[in-house]
Design brief:
Elements lengths: L5 E11 L9 E7 L19 E4 H10 L4 E5 L9 H10 L3 E6 L13 E5 L24 E6 L2 H14 L7 E5 L6 H11 L4 E2 L3 H6 L6
Parallel strand pairs: 2-4, 4-5, 5-6, 6-7, 7-8, 8-9
Antiparallel strand pairs: 1-2, 1-3
The structure holds iron/sulfur cluster.
The site of iron/sulfur cluster has 10 residues, from loops.
Organism: Thiobacillus denitrificans (strain ATCC 25259 / T1)
Protein name: 7-carboxy-7-deazaguanine synthase
Cofactor: S-adenosyl-L-methionine; Mg(2+); [4Fe-4S] cluster
C-alpha cells in the first residue's frame, strides 16, 4: 500500500492576515518548511530547516480545528514541496478561501486556479533578483497579487520600472512593502504619492500588533 502524502510543516496557526488585500482577516496559516532562496532580509529563516512531517489528511484536520474559513499557505517557499499542489486543491475542495504566498522563483502555473497567488518579485537588495521567474507573470489573473518588498530607493526605482514596463497593475493588484527596519514606511509612501503609482502600499499588520515572533 502507498504511504499517504505528507508535507514538512513548520507551523500551523491562527492569526490575522498581515498583508495583501486580505489584511485584517482571521486566517489559518500553514507554513511549509524549506526554501531554496536566501533573501537578505528574510523574516522566516526559522522555516529553512526541520519541520514536522504531517500527512495531508492531518493538515486538513488541524486547519478545520480552528473553525476559520480563510487559509494562507506560506513558507519558506511552499512550492518547493511537491505535495503543496494537492494540499491547495484539497483546501479549495473543502470550501476554504485559499491564498498562497510564493517567492516568484518557482513555477506557479499548476496551482489550483481557485487559489489567490501572492507572487513576490525580488528586487536587487534582496540578493535574489536573478531568481525571478518572469514567465510566472503571464499566468497571473485578477484574483492574484504581485508583491515587491523594498529596502531602499534603488529597489524602489527598480520596482517602478518593472511596474511600468510590464504594466503590472493591469494584471492584478500590485503591493509595495518596505523592509522593516531598513526603509521607513512614510518614506516609501512619499515616493509612491510623488510618482502617482498605481500600487497598494502595505505594512505588515501582524508585526505592528505582535512583533516578529513565530506563530503570529
Ligand atoms: S523566498 Fe521568502 S522564505 Fe525564502 S528566503 Fe526569501 S523571504 Fe525568506
Amino acid at each position: 500500500m502507498l504511504a499517504p502524502p505528507t508535507l514538512r510543516i513548520t507551523e500551523i496557526f491562527l492569526s490575522l492576515q498581515g498583508e495583501t488585500s486580505r489584511t485584517g482577516l482571521a486566517t489559518v496559516f500553514v507554513r511549509l518548511a524549506g526554501c531554496p532562496l536566501r533573501c537578505r532580509w528574510c523574516d522566516t529563516t526559522y522555516s529553512f530547516q526541520g519541520g514536522e512531517t504531517v500527512s495531508l489528511d492531518e493538515v486538513l484536520a488541524r486547519v478545520a480545528g480552528f473553525g476559520v474559513s480563510v487559509v494562507c499557505v506560506t513558507g519558506g517557499e511552499p512550492l518547493a514541496q511537491k505535495n503543496c499542489l494537492p494540499l491547495l486543491a484539497r483546501l479549495c475542495d473543502a470550501g476554504y478561501s485559499v491564498s498562497l504566498e510564493t517567492s516568484g522563483a518557482l513555477d506557479v502555473s499548476a496551482v489550483d486556479p481557485r487559489v489567490s497567488r501572492i507572487v513576490d518579485v525580488k528586487p536587487p537588495e534582496s540578493g535574489e533578483v536573478a531568481r525571478n521567474r518572469w514567465e510566472n507573470l503571464a499566468h497571473l489573473g485578477a484574483h492574484d497579487e504581485i508583491k515587491f518588498v523594498l529596502a531602499d530607493r534603488a529597489d524602489y526605482e527598480w520596482a517602478r520600472e518593472v511596474l511600468r514596463e510590464r504594466a503590472l497593475e493591469r494584471v492584478c493588484p500590485v503591493l509595495f512593502s518596505p523592509v522593516q527596519g531598513e526603509l521607513a514606511p512614510a518614506q516609501l509612501a512619499e515616493w509612491i504619492l510623488a510618482d502617482r503609482l498605481p500600487v497598494r502600499m502595505q505594512v505588515q499588520l501582524h508585526k505592528l500588533l505582535w512583533g516578529s515572533a513565530p506563530g503570529r
